[in-house]
C-alpha cells in the first residue's frame, strides 16, 4: 500500500535554529514528490517538486532533497514567518494524477 | 503564475439547501482538477478527480450524488454540495494541474458551515 509518513508531527524552533523535516514514503513507481506550505485557514502553497533521487531544490531558507526512500526539507536560520504546516505529497504510478499526502509537520518559530 | 481561485471563500447555509463552490485556474489551462476536504488539524482528503469534459472520478466513500462535480472548461470546475447537512461542514479545497506538468496548484479554500 502506498504510504507517506512525515516526522516530527510538530516542531518548535528558536529563530535562527536550523532543522530538518522528514518525509518517508513507500510507493510503487514514484512519479514526483511535492512539498507544500499551509497557513491556518488557507490552501496549500506550492514549494517544490522533486522527481528523482539525488535531486535538490532551494528557495530562500528552504532546501528540499530526495532519496529513494525519503525527502528532507531543510530550514536554515528560520524566522517567525516560516511558522506553518509543511505538507509532503507523492504522486505514484498506481495513483495516476492524484497525490498521496502525509499528515504534515507543524512548525513554530519563536523570536 | 499558477494561480487558482475559489469562490466563495466562506459560506453559511441552512440544512437541506445546496451550495455551489467554484474553482478557477486564472493563468493556465487545467485539464485535471481535484477536490479535497480538510478537517481541523488533519491533512487533505481527496474527494474526487475531474477531467475537463468527462465525468468525475470519486474516491471510495464519497457520495457522487451528494457532491456533484462539473468541469465544463479548462479553467473552471464546480463542486455542488446537495441537500447539505451539518456533518458536511468542512474546509473544501480545490487544486488544478497545469497541462503537461505534474504539479498541482491549490486554491485558497472554501469554509462551509451548515446550520
Number of strands of chain A: 11
Secondary structure category of chain A: mainly beta
pLDDT < 50 stretches of chain B: none
The share of residues in extended strands of chain A comes to over 45%
Silhouette of chain A:
globular
Radius of gyration of chain B: 13 Å
The beta-strand count of chain B equals 11
Mean pLDDT of chain B: 93
- Enumerate how many helices of chain B there are, as a single number: 0
Estimate the strand proportion of chain B.
over 45%
Q: Order of helices and strands of chain B, N to C?
A: EEEEEEEEEEE
> What value does the average pLDDT of chain A take?
94
Helix content of chain A: under 10%
Low-confidence stretches of chain A: none
Estimated structural class of chain B: mainly beta
The coarse silhouette of chain B is: globular
Tell me about the biggest sheet of chain B? 7 strands, mixed
Largest interface: A-B, 22 and 23 residues
Question: End-to-end span of chain B in angstroms?
Answer: 37 Å
What are the secondary-structure elements of chain A, in order, as H or E?
EEEEEEEEEEE
Give the end-to-end Cα distance of chain A, rounded to a whole number of Å.
Answer: 41 Å
Provide structural commentary.
The complex is a heterodimer of chains A (111) and B (115). The mean pLDDT of chain A is 94. Chain A has strands spanning 3-7, 10-14, 19-26, 30-38, 45-50, 56-59, 62-66, 70-75, 84-92, 100-101, 105-110. With 111 residues, chain A is mainly beta. Chain A has no helices and eleven strands. In chain A, strand 4 and strand 5 (45-50) form a beta hairpin. In chain A, the strands form two sheets. In chain A, strands 2, 4, 5, 9, 10 and 11 form a six-stranded mixed sheet that branches. Chain A has a five-stranded antiparallel sheet with strand order 1-3-8-7-6, with no helix packed on it. In chain A, 0% of the residues lie in helices and 59% in strands. Chain B has strands at 4-7, 10-13, 19-25, 30-38, 44-51, 57-58, 67-73, 76-81, 90-98, 104-106, 110-114. Chain B is built from no helices and eleven strands. By secondary structure, chain B is mostly beta strands. The model of chain B has no long low-confidence stretch (mean pLDDT 93).
